Each structure stands twice: as structure tokens, then as C-alpha cells.
């Protein structure tokens, strides 16, 4: 099928309160979200859904559906992010987490890495004081007090550098982020990649907490409680990069097999927690242990956490991640102790 996807930036500008709007016309917010992130390919969606979205955005179908345009990812060298929910360059990434799940550590690590890669890092300061943002501020080049200041700074810096921009959900609720993104569309600058977080944690209970997104990172309390960081859920996190037309087929195949393994492992783990390892069928023992090893491998030491963990930060290229995950899926590391896979770089 032709390489097609939704024009998410257009939807974001035209329909800021997409959750309510979608419900009013009979669309499920989860379906709309999955279409925007690419979890549901546009080619498999119902015609009435696409037509309803076009009517909400007051645009033609040709404007809503982008054809033949590739989505470019930003490689973070963080295994679980690059494998399951890559960052769309120039897109909007939403972090869905309650406090304590590690979203700020992930952002601090990204700012550290992006700054080294030559990006300009910009933070729109949220209302009130938030001491928990201290780690992010260490690698933030520009802290904008207002939305107007953020626009001014990015209009200048964006002429020579790509920008990583972070804002709290409070600015989404006021509509300021949508207005800023629309204004930036009219300025001749390089890509602005936007991260939206929720310092209050209310986003977990919302269907579309940030409106349309290109990438969604759903953080997981179970992973966080067991210190499996970064605690980004590999099953529910997604990205429009993962549409088959935009992604290398090898990546897509390994990603799908890894998700399938982890999904079954989580089901089996629930049984093991209640009945013990003998409580699952003998035919599932291998699946369970490979799931354990994959989950352990997806943990990763961060540079910004070295003082706390005592473990040196690690970068893992997407190529190495894919090779390592394939080894786990194929059973090449079945003999390795699970502890030897915790918080490492490559195998």
C-alpha cells in the first residue's frame, strides 16, 4: 500500500480538544490516538473514521492524509525507546506517567544526550516551582518563562540548530502549545521536536491527555516498582515510525516478536507470582525465561544516574539492540544468568 499517514500536526492545530470532539461525533478516543501514533495504520481504518476526522479538522481528505512522506526517527541509543516507540523528528512525544515512574530521569537523560549531539534544548517553565526539574535544568540551554519567550528563542536558535522542546501538560490544557506550534509552522527554522510531560500525573487517567501525538511513551508502575528502568511499557508505547512503510522491515519484525514475547511473559508472570514456576505449563517455561531475559536486557544504565547507581551510563545503537534482541528471541542467551543482563549496554 502507498506510504500514507495522518497529518497529525494539522489535527493538533485544528482540533486542540480532540478527546471531547471525537466523542461527540461517535469516535473512540483510543482509536483516534492509535491512528495518530500509527498503531492502527491509516489503510486499515474505517472510512467513516477518516471522514469524521477531516470534518472535525475542517479540511479535505487530501489535507488530512499525507502520502509518500517518510517519517524520520531520532535515535536515542536507549534500547527500549528506539525499539518500541522511536522519536519522530519534528513530532510531538507524550509521556504518560504518574510521579515516581521515572519520566523525569528519562527526560534528563535525553537532554544530556541531545545536548552532546548538538541539539538546542529548551524548557518552557511550568507554573509554580518544581524542584524535581533540577536534573533536567542541568542540560537545558534555554529556560523560557513564557510561551512568547519560548517562541522568540526558538525562532532564533532554530535557524542553525534542531531543537528539543519540553513543556508541561498545563500548557496543553490552556491551548498555548497548539498556538506555539502553529506559529512555528510559519517560521523558517529547523525541526522542533516537542516533549510533553505531566508533572501532576493526571494524564494516566485521560484518553488523549495531549491531543494527537506521533509518539506515545506509556510508563509502567510494575516496571518502576521492580526497578526495571527505564520503566517505559514496551507493549502500550508506540510511534508513527512503526508503520511498516516508514520502518526497516527487520526492525518491525523484531519489534513485533519482542512485543509478543513480553505480552505472553507478563501473563505467565502473573501465574508464577500466585502458583510458582510449576504453576505454568511445561511448554511455556522457555517462553517465560526468555521473557525474563528480554525484560532484564531492556533495562539500561543512564549517564545522569551514575552517582546514584554506581553504574556507568551506556549507549546502544539501534543496530546492536536489534541484534541483541534477536539473540534473546532465538534462544542464543538461554544459558546466561538473568542478573548478567540487568543494566548493561550490549550483550
From TrEMBL:
Keyword Amino-acid biosynthesis: no
Keyword annotations: ATP synthesis, ATP-binding, CF(1), Ion transport, Membrane, Nucleotide-binding, Translocase, Transport
Subcellular location: Membrane
InterPro entries the UniProt entry points to: ATPase_a/bsu_AS (IPR020003), ATPase_alpha/beta_chains (IPR050053), ATPase_F1/V1_b/a_C (IPR024034), P-loop_NTPase (IPR027417)
Family in the record: Belongs to the ATPase alpha/beta chains family.
Name of this protein: ATP synthase subunit B
Amino acid at each position: 500500500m502507498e506510504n500514507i499517514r495522518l497529518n497529525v500536526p494539522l489535527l493538533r492545530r485544528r482540533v486542540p480538544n480532540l478527546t471531547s470532539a471525537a466523542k461527540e461525533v461517535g469516535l473512540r478516543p483510543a482509536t483516534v490516538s492509535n491512528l495518530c501514533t500509527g498503531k492502527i495504520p491509516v489503510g486499515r481504518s474505517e472510512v467513516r473514521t477518516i471522514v469524521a476526522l477531516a470534518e472535525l479538522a475542517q479540511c479535505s481528505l487530501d489535507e488530512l492524509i499525507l502520502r509518500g512522506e517518510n517519517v524520520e526517527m531520532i535515535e536515542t541509543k536507549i534500547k527500549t525507546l528506539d525499539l518500541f516507540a522511536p522519536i519522530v523528528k519534528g513530532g510531538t512525544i507524550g509521556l504518560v506517567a504518574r510521579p515516581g515512574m521515572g519520566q523525569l530521569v528519562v527526560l534528563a537523560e535525553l537532554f544530556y544526550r541531545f545536548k552532546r549531539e548538538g541539539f538546542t534544548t529548551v524548557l518552557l517553565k511550568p507554573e509554580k516551582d518544581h524542584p524535581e526539574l533540577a536534573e533536567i535544568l542541568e542540560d537545558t540551554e534555554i529556560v523560557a518563562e513564557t510561551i512568547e519567550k519560548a517562541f522568540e528563542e526558538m525562532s532564533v536558535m532554530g535557524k542553525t540548530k534542531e531543537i528539543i522542546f519540553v513543556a508541561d501538560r498545563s500548557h496543553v490544557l490552556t491551548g498555548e502549545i497548539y498556538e506555539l506550534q502553529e506559529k512555528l509552522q510559519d517560521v523558517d527554522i529547523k525541526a522542533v521536536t516537542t516533549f510533553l510531560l505531566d508533572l501532576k500525573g493526571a494524564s494516566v487517567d485521560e484518553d488523549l491527555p495531549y491531543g494527537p501525538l506521533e509518539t506515545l511513551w506509556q510508563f509502567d508502575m510494575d516496571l518502576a516498582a521492580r526497578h526495571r528502568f527505564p520503566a517505559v511499557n514496551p507493549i502500550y508505547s508506540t510511534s508513527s515510525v512503526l508503520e511498516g512503510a516508514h520502518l526497516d522491515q527487520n526492525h518491525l519484525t523484531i519489534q513485533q516478536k519482542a512485543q509478543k514475547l513480553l505480552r505472553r511473559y507478563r501473563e505467565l508472570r502473573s501465574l508464577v507470582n500466585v502458583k510458582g514456576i510449576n504453576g505454568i505449563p511445561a511448554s511455556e517455561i522457555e517462553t517465560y525465561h526468555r521473557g525474563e531475559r528480554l525484560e532484564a536486557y531492556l533495562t539500561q544504565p543512564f549517564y545522569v544516574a551514575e552517582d546514584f547507581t554506581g553504574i556507568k551510563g551506556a549507549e546502544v545503537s539501534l543496530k546492536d539492540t536489534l541484534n541483541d534482541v534477536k539473540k534473546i528471541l532465538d534462544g542464543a542467551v538461554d544459558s546466561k544468568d538473568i542478573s548478567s543482563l540487568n543494566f548493561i549496554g550490549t550483550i
